[in-house]
Amino acid sequence: MKSHGYAAHDPKSPLVPFNFERRDPGPNDVVVEIAYSGICHSDIHQVRDEWGGSIYPMVPGHEIVGHVTAIGSAVTKFKVGDRAGVGVFVDSCRVCDNCKVAAEPYCAKGMTPTYNGRDNNGDIVFGGYSNNIVVDEKYTYTISPKLDLAATAPLLCAGITTYSPLRHWKVGPGKKVGIVGLGGLGHMGLKFAHSFGAHVVQFTTSESKIADAKKLGADEVVITKDADALAKHASSFDFILDCVSAPHDLNQYLSLLRLDGTLCLVGLPEVPLPVGAFSLVANRRSLAGSMIGGTSETQDMLDYCAEHNIVSDIELTPIDKLEEAYARVVKADVKYRFVIDMATLPKG
Ligand code: NAP
Ligand code: ZN
Ligand code: ZN
C-alpha cells in the first residue's frame, strides 16, 4: 500500500517529505487515514539518535488518531468511518507471560514499536507523520465521538504513559503525589493525578508555568531551583512521577518521599543518572520505572478520558514547521503538546 509522510534520513538533517510502502491489510488489519499525529519528546530523542541504534529512514509519530478507511475480513472492533487510535507499539509476541496479561510493552520477545523498528518480516516500520497506517485491530483503539480528536492524539503516548503508573501505584484520595516536569507527559500526569483525587504538587523549572499548573489541577507548585520550597516537602510524598527528558538530580526528589514512597521514572534522559544509596535506604524508598501501558489499559484510559472529559492541551502545527516545533519542545516551551494537522501534509 502506498503511503507518504515526513522522514528523518540521519540524526542531523531536518525531516523531509518521503514516499514509502506499507503492507497490504491482512484479515485482522485496519487501515487508518491519519488526521492528527502528536509530537512526543521520544520522537526527537530517536530522530537525533540520542538513545543509540536509530534506524533510518525514520517516519516518527506514535500518537496517532484518524478514521478507518478499510478493514480486513476478520475485523470485529471497527467499521469503515470509525475513529481509531494507534500508540507506541503495533505488535508483540502475544504468548509470553507479559503479553498474556496485556502488559505488551514488556513483551519478553520485545514489542514491535510503531516506528524505529522492524516488523516480523524484517521490514522497517513507519509511524504517524504520514497519511495512513495499517495496524492489527488488537493494537488499535476505539475513540469516543465525545472527545476532541486532535486533542486526543497525545493520549496515545503521553496519556497512557502517565495513566499506567498512577494506576499501578494506586494514586487516589489521601495520597500526596508529585509530578516532575510540566511538558507533554507531565501535564497529562497532572490531569490524571488530580482527577483520581490525590493532593498533587507540580515541580517545574519554568516560573512561567505556575498559573497553568494550577489551572491544570495542581494543588501546589514548586519551582525546583528553590531549595527552601523543596525542603518544606521533605519526606512527605507517597509517589512522585518523574517526566523529565533531560539529566537532573534524582536524589533531590528521593529525599521528598515518605516511608515506603516511590519515585517512578517515565522520562528517558540519554545518560545514566547518579543515585546515592542513602537517598534510598532512608524511609525504605523505592526507585521505579514504567513504560507506556498495555492494550487493555490504553483502551481503559481512552474510555476514562471520554467519561471524565480529559484531553491534552495542544498547539496544532502544520507539518512543514516540524523544526520549529522540535526546537520549542527542547526548550521546554510547548503548551503542552504539539499535534501535527495531517491535512497540511503535501500529496505524495
Ligand atoms: P517534554 O514535553 O519536552 O517535557 C519535558 C519537561 O521536562 C519539560 O517541559 C520541562 O518541564 C522538563 N525539563 C526539560 N529539560 C529539563 C532539565 N534540563 N532539567 C529539568 N527539567 C527539565 O517531553 P515529553 O514528551 O513529556 O517526554 C518526557 C520524557 O519522557 C522524554 O524523555 C520522553 O522520551 C520520555 N517518554 C517516556 C515514555 C515511557 O514509556 N517511559 C513514553 C513517552 C515519553 P518544566 O518546564 O516544567 O521544568
Ligand atoms: Zn511518546
Ligand atoms: Zn510477548
Account of the protein in words:
By secondary structure, this protein is α/β, with parallel strands linked by helices. It folds into two domains: 2-157 and 313-344, Medium-chain alcohol dehydrogenases, catalytic domain (Quinone Oxidoreductase, Chain A, domain 1, Alpha-Beta Complex); 159-289, NAD(P)-binding Rossmann-like Domain (Rossmann fold). The protein is 24% helix and 26% strand. It has eleven helices and 17 strands. The strands form four sheets. Strands 3, 4, 5, 8, 9, 16 and 17 form a seven-stranded mixed β-sheet that branches. Strand 16, helix 11 (322-330) and strand 17 (337-341) form a beta-alpha-beta unit. Helix 4 (158-168) crosses helix 5 (184-195) and helix 4 (158-168) crosses helix 10 (295-308). The model has no long low-confidence stretch (mean pLDDT 98). One zinc ion (ZN) binds at residues 92-93, 96, 98-99, 107-109.
